[in-house]
Amino acid sequence: MGRGRNAIIISAVILAFIAGTIVASPQVIAANPILSAIEGIVTGNSGKLDAILALDHDSDGVPDVDDNCPFTSNADQADIDVDGIGDVCDDSDGDGVFDSDDICQGFDDTLDADGDGVPDDCDLCEGNDASGDTDEDGVCDDIDVCPLNPDDIC
To answer: What is the pTM of this model?
Structure first.
């Protein structure tokens, strides 16, 4: 699935290069392996195409043109939701955290008002969740005045 999408992108860049809508100096082309390979295709020196097709930025053994997550290693290419993006690169809740690292799936992991490392929407209690909430009053034991009594009567 990745090869089709990436091949289309490469083809579009080649066409733009041929049409002259991508203009780059010889120094820029020489410094960029992708532009260099495209320039080689356009000028008939397409031996560089093999090099671009063999690129594997994440070193997972899957060439970038076939890789559903080309910059994060995922040799198994797992894609449970079949969206063409590898599971390790999916961010289904849009919080900027890949699902594989998401602490609070479906909520914004970047919001943590009490600084305990647990996103607000998944907090057990206000305070450090690791300390627990013995009296189940929503206030963690580390800051609870009376951690054994939900009415805060000690």
So the answer is: 0.44
